[in-house]
Amino acid sequence: MFISKLKLINFRNYSSLDIELHNKLNIFIGNNAQGKTNILESIYLTGFGKSFRTSKDKELIKANKNMAYVKVEGEKRHGEVSIELRLWDGKKKEIKTNGLSLTKLSELLGNIYIVIFSPEDLKLIKGGPAERRRFIDREISHVNRKYYYDIMSYNKVLLQRNNLLKNIVYNKKLLKTIDIWDNKLVEFGMKVIFKRIEFINRLNALSRLIHRKITDGRENLEVKYLSNIEVNSKSIYEEAFKDFRTKLEKRLETDIKRGYTTVGPHKDDLGIYIDDKDIRIFGSQGQQRTAALSLKLSEIEIIKGEVGEYPILLLDDVMSELDINRQNFLINSLRNVQTFITITEIPQLMAPLVKEGNIFEISGGRIIAKDGNFN
Ligand SMILES: Nc1ncnc2c1ncn2[C@@H]1O[C@H](COP(=O)(O)OP(=O)(O)O)[C@@H](O)[C@H]1O
Ligand SMILES: [Mg+2]
Q: Ligand 1, atom 19: nearest CA belongs to which residue?
């Protein structure tokens, strides 16, 4: 798919912006703090309904204004798509797809497919398990609304079970009701676990290939789902189900003492290894960066496999962080994918490619030049 138009009103440092996009490559160039990432952020917003930088809509609204507006128009396999968002200070945001208002944020998923690669993605490797779970959940939800529903339901049940655990201390009678929550927790939990395993198996196969290419066959990347439930890709549903249930019972005393649930997919992690060594501990900065790139590029193919068309790709400030070989590999992987790049200067390597795209020069929340027509 690709997007052809972007319109902003009072978004971040843009009073108004209305641009036509190239269906292969769009480069946003400019000094720091001029509004390059803001543009990618606005596009990201139309895919996920939230920013990758903040959870507060208010920050996205231009200072001293009360509403921000973002619209993209694009083309997909099955026709045209338009997304409009209105963000308000102190009121729920309004979202329209093809002119129709949505009642739930989840309805937005599956309209615009996006893969983003930014320096933040190193967190995926360096950060804690919660960071990696967020990555997994976001990526699956993006192309699978049912998963989004399952993980939301799981989190809701978890919250209710945790509240119950806290109350049991004061009222022992409540213990009788824990079964209801345990059943639900296991029911949704199993759906979450199995879908995550399926996703990670695919991620593993693809990222392994990509990583070998990037490193000229020198490194073997492996990703594994690390679950606290006895489960692997070969185990049967019933066994895992039983294990989850048994562990909940065994840990009940501990859970009551702590006031929260200590077992379940909300405690799982993604293991990332190069040549069998945990990259978080043993990986160099460069290896970690390359692994993050391999995982992100795999997502492009996963989405293609899942929905039958390529997502758009947002690359925020990543070119300068990669060495020549990796830049080269990245650029060569972009052929089928509409790409948006922010950059402070164009590396030599990209110069030939640039002919196939638009360059927007950004300064102070405005486009001051396009395609080298500096005025
Ligand atoms: N809500 C807002 N209202 C006005 N300006 C904002 C708002 N949020 C961010 N900015 C401004 O946007 C600029 C940063 O934009 P950004 O896209 O992150 O820069 P870069 O070009 O370095 O990627 C800063 O000048 C910041 O002050
Ligand atoms: Mg930036």
A: 33
